[in-house]
Amino acid sequence: AIQLTQSPSSLSASVGDRVTITCRASQGISTALAWYQHKPGKAPNLLIYDASSLQSGVPSRFSGSGSGTDFTLTISSLQPEDFATYYCQQFNSDPYSFGQGTKLEIK
Amino acid sequence: QVQLVESGGGLVKPGGSLRLSCRGSGFRFSDFYMTWIRQAPGKGLEWISNIVTTGSTVHYADSVKGRFTISRDNAKNSLFLQMDSLRVEDTAVYYCARDPGPYGEYGWFDTWGQGTLVTVSS
Predict the structure, then answer these.
(1) Cβ B44–A49 below 8 Å, yes or no?
(2) What is the mean pLDDT of residues A2-24?
(3) According to the model, what pLDDT value does residue B102 have?
(4) Given pLDDT bands bounded at 50, 70 and 90, which one contains residue B11?
(5) Residues of A in Cβ contact (< 8 Å) with B115
(6) What distance in Å separates the CA atoms of residue B96 and residue A25, rounded to the nearest whole number?
(7) Which residues in chain A (61-100) have CB-CB distances under 8 A to chain B?
(8) Contact between chains at B45 and A87 (C-beta distance less than 8 A)
(9) How many beta-carbon contacts under 8 Å exist across A and B?
């Protein structure tokens, strides 16, 4: 099974900051990666699919990049509503798997 | 709007059974692959099972294989998860999610329910 390792596990930042979260796969997955935002008590929200495609309705301050084993999610200018936990997910091979999450907190 | 609503969670003893339901609305349910994903307390997300549009093919994570059964009733726009031989470690919020690929599998999930909590405890 493919393992995904996110870094950092938690991150403190301020409104307006540029933030980057990394996801590393245990083997190459081409661009078969998605990113989600999850707030407590809410349904997870799809941000990025195919490593770099922005889901409809998601603000353009979110972007994704990478291929193979190394991927990044970047938020160009943090907004108050962006404080949440972020997960990457691979869909290259069964069983699909998620990273352990990165909790983004207000500094 | 496109929506998924889960139900059926609750408290059950180890070794017991529970059946979760997920009802879809705002889209043609029968056209989409569906998935169950769970999140244990303080843990990350775990993919556990999916089912193709017709219900003819299903997949399971090793952690639930042989104990959980996924099914669907397209006439009722509903997805199910029959959970048997429940263990304490199955305690989690269970989400149903839609794969956005029409008639096929994209692999990511564009619509999720709010989740239903399953607690396995004596």
Answers:
(1) no
(2) 96
(3) 79
(4) very high
(5) 43
(6) 25
(7) 87, 89, 91-92, 94-100
(8) yes
(9) 55
* pLDDT mean over A33-52: 96
- Nearest-10 Cα torsion for A94, A95, A96, A100: -150
pLDDT digits (tens, 9 = 90+) for B65-104: 999 999 999 999 999 999 999 999 999 999 999 999 877 7
Name every chain A residue with its beta carbon within 8 A of the beta carbon of B4: 43
Using alpha carbons, list the distances in angstroms from residue A50 to A77, A85, A99, B58. Answer: 22, 20, 16, 23
Task: Please list every residue in chain A whose beta carbon sits closer than 8 Å to the beta carbon of residue B61.
Answer: 95
Report the C-alpha gap between B72 and A50 in whole angstroms: 27
Would you mind telling me the total number of residues written for chain A in this entry? 107
**Cβ neighbourhood burial of A58 (10 Å; 0-12, 13-18, 19+):** middle
B80 touches chain A (CB under 8 A): no
**What tens digit of pLDDT does each residue of B12-56 get?**
999 999 999 999 999 999 999 999 999 999 999 999 999 999 999
